[in-house]
Design a protein that fits this description.
The protein is an all-beta fold. It has a single domain (9-85), classed as Immunoglobulin-like. It contains no helices and 8 strands. The strands form 2 sheets. Strands 2, 3, 5, 6 and 7 form a 5-stranded antiparallel β-sheet that branches. Strands 4-1-8 form a 3-stranded mixed β-sheet, with no helix packed on it. It is globular, with a radius of gyration of 12 Å. The termini are far apart.
């Protein structure tokens, strides 16, 4: 991964099973951002403020899935390992 030229960091991951065209959401600093998976289920958000606390989610039907690493993260560095396993049951 190459860092982008803007401010902040890049966060993302891969949706499993890998499907393109699925909407992934990010809530950070009270703002909702969206992106769509591509190239085998990969997604990323650029310009996330460094050290901001956020939440990534994927919703299928009425079930919401979060990254395996946890529902909430702190964007301390560029990180593309927030993988979402949509075959699992959603946690509490």
């Amino acid at each position: 991964m190459r860092p982008h030229d803007g401010q902040g960091v890049v966060v993302g991951g891969r949706l499993n099973p890998p499907e393109d065209g699925k909407r992934i959401t990010l809530i950070v600093d009270g703002r909702l951002r969206r992106t769509v998976t591509s190239r085998g289920g990969w997604f990323m958000f650029t310009g996330v403020p460094r050290d901001a606390v956020g939440q990534i989610a994927y919703k299928r039907a009425s079930t919401v899935f979060h990254p395996w690493r946890g529902r909430v993260f702190q964007a301390a560095r560029n990180d593309l390992e927030y993988h979402i396993y949509a075959a699992q049951k959603a946690g509490p």
